[in-house]
Specification:
This is Dihydrolipoyl dehydrogenase. With 475 residues, the chain is of the alpha/beta class. The protein has 13 helices and 21 strands. A five-stranded mixed β-barrel has the order 1-2-3-4-5. The chain has a five-stranded parallel sheet with strand order 7-14-8-9-10. It has a five-stranded antiparallel sheet with strand order 17-18-21-20-19, sandwiched between helices. Helix 1 packs parallel to helix 8, helix 3 runs antiparallel to helix 4 and helix 3 packs parallel to helix 6.
Length: 475
Amino acid sequence: MTKQFDVVVIGAGPGGYIAAIRAAQLGFNTACIDEWKNEKGGPAPGGTCTNVGCIPSKALLQSSEHFDQANHHFAEHGIEVKGVSMDVAKMVARKNTVVKQNNDGILYLLKKNKITFLHGRGSFVKSTDAGYEIKVAGAAEETIVGKHIIIATGSNARSLPGVPFDEANILSNDGALKMGAVPKKLGLIGSGVIGLEMGSVWRRLGSEVTILEGLPTFLGAVDEQVAKEAHKAFTKQGLKIELGVKVGEIKSGKKGVSVAYTNAKGEAVSLDVDKLIVSVGRVPNTIGLAADAVGLALDERGAIVVDGDCKTSLPNVWAVGDVVRGPMLAHKAEEEGVAVAERIAGQHGHVNFNTIPWVIYTSPEIAWVGRTEQQLKVDGVAYKAGSFPFLANGRARALGDTTGFVKFLADAKTDEILGVHIVGPQASELIAEAVVAMEFKASAEDIARICHAHPSLSEATKEAALAVDKRTLNF
């Protein structure tokens, strides 16, 4: 007899497993299908984020940061260390352990919430009176029926035309996280989040890193003042960043990879590297979903078409995360997953796209929420700006990390916070206060009047809010 479920979630990445948990909390009989496999062939839920994205990259960033600190900064603290070396195999093994801990944690959460987990690829078969028939192709194929279907199949790395990933010399984010040795020369195409984070990891470990970016501006989505500060810091660290390039022929051989490109001056250049990481964006993953079997509408990018509530073109079929419109961020997927489960229950799930934080986990970290100064100018919004440097922050001095600043943008008339931009130590943690403030439509004055602990990095947030009214106290 075919198993029947109230809700079937296809995909157990951040959007999928969270949607399944919230649906189960709301009393629905829920199943979650996911095909990710670990090295032994067992289930590895968590999607790209847990397996080859957010989690493993942060593990490598942390390891490489320790190595960099020991080599270049411990002496400032009176700590003398000699003969520091990196065991790359052990670093990668630790990363794999962190990934497995997260995989196991998700499996535990699914079991705890009495969710039926099915290991395999989920695809549509047909619509029925009871909902939708879904085939699960795994070790043992089976078919289930769900009244409501939530698609959370994520995204895949985009390759360059005619240059497929071989994960040996030409790497996606997956291969970049599995390198077993430090390449002498490393090339990256794309200076986005993945490019900068992976470039930082291997640069710290000794690689000569060159980043090729097609756009004429660095981090175009980031506030211009923040991007300039970050570019200055990365260049000082040793990352070679070339903007406005046009990539030509890429040849891969036994000795490495050769990249022919035209630089911003129009000159023909050839870059020879041991490994090449390509990070030029991601594409929605609908491979094997059998969307045609039920008439599920996709757009020209291959993304599933949804409305503002994540409803697809089919009744009772929903989609969340990277496979739909909007930023490809794990936390955005999670919020949509919760909202959809609540909408199925007749509640009013809500996701505010204007207060979704963005983070780049380099050193310095970069984080922001809301609109940039460039966007406010284009939108014709009258605004006030205030910033405060970490150089004038006592905790930052004690940490020995004073790069960067906090910047506030507020409405010129109402003082409502329109955007907060941070480049500097622990920006990923500091941005949370700004998200909360904007969600409650706080003014810069509200943050300026709130007591912040001393000494703390968060004082830079308060001082930047004070700067909007030109009344900083410590700068």
